[in-house]
Amino acid sequence: MPSIQLQGKIFLRGTINALTGLHIGGNSGELDIGGIDNPVIRNAFNRQPYIPGSSLRGKMRGLLDRHFNNSLDKRVGRDVRVHECQTPTDYNGCPVCQVFGVAPIRQLSGKTMPTRLIVRDTFLTAKSIEALDIADTDTDFTEIKTEVAIDRITSAATPRQQERVPAGTTFGPFQVVHSLYTLDESEQNNQLQDELQFFDTVLTGMELLEDDYLGGSGSRGSGQIIFDNLTLTFKSRECYEKADMPPITIAENANIKTLRQSNYTEKILNAINVPS
Ligand SMILES: [Zn+2]
Questions:
Q1: For residue range 15-39, what is the model confidence (pLDDT) as tens digits?
Q2: Residue 172 pLDDT
């Protein structure tokens, strides 16, 4: 296999605004007796709720699999079916596996690129920590939502509880890091176009997520989020070589839609000094 060269990294930062209550499930095993049934995930040090990068990434990947009509042919444990390409031909034609990566099975050994996408954990903004401190909620930084299950014959009601981060909470900055790779000098320009197309797949995943939900109980109102105040920067290979060379700001104050409609690909290609 030819050598893989890193041409640079795209950094997307911004805030995640919870437009409705957000429930990303934590571990009820760590709760005291008398605790609630469906807790949210929290940072063990300060007990503040956060958004794990794995939750964002997993949801984006699942929505993109559906968008591209990918086959769900891999089993995780007994009950979970996911998509992961099993052959080099499938992998080469699959933007989702190219972006999110595949397990290193034997058939693919030496025939895949490194995983391009990293999604970091996102914590509460200082503003939201302050606001939630002041707010008179049931629990630290969260609310308890009680829903009622109605027996369809007797109409008997059984309440159930769920912990949520309240609507209006902001998390940030989130950070998505996307690497651009090339294999062969002579084909570099075409490859970079493809690489940037992969980043557009990431943005598509984020757009699909805005129109879907994050965490649990989405069909019952929870988990509507938007990505806002987006800043896109690019750190070329040269930035890592020369300590005094700053990353280039490609876009500021954007949302997913305005970013996708902008000429960010051209600006990144110019930054790598390849005529587009
Ligand atoms: Zn695939």
A1: 999 999 999 987 765 555 556 678 8
A2: 93
Rounded distance between C-alpha atoms, residue 161 and residue 176, angstroms: 33
Q: State the pTM of this model.
A: 0.91
Residue 254 CA, ligand 1 centroid: distance in Å: 30
Dihedrals φ, ψ of 82, to 5°?
-130, 170
Two tokens, residue 157: 């009601």
In the block, which residue shows the tokens 């009509």? 69
- pLDDT, tens digit, for every residue of 146-166? 888 888 888 888 888 889 999
Distance of CA 113 from the midpoint of ligand 1 (Å): 13
The rounded distance, in Å, linking the Cα atoms of 10 and 247 is 10
CA neighbor of 194 nearest in space, from 118, 140, 274:
274
What is the 93 CA–ligand 1 centroid distance (Å)? 8
**Percent of the chain residues topping a pLDDT of 90:** 63
How many A from CA of 197 to the centre of ligand 1?
16
Only one residue has tokens 């595949």, namely 102
| Residue ranges covered by each domain of the chain | 5-271
Rounded distance from Cα 105 to ligand 1 centre (Å): 13
**Helix, strand counts (H, E) of the chain:** 8, 9
- What's the rounded Cα separation, in Å, for the pair 86 and 212? 28
Is the peptide bond preceding residue 166 cis, with omega within 30 degrees of 0? no
Residue 201 CA to ligand 1 centre (angstroms): 13
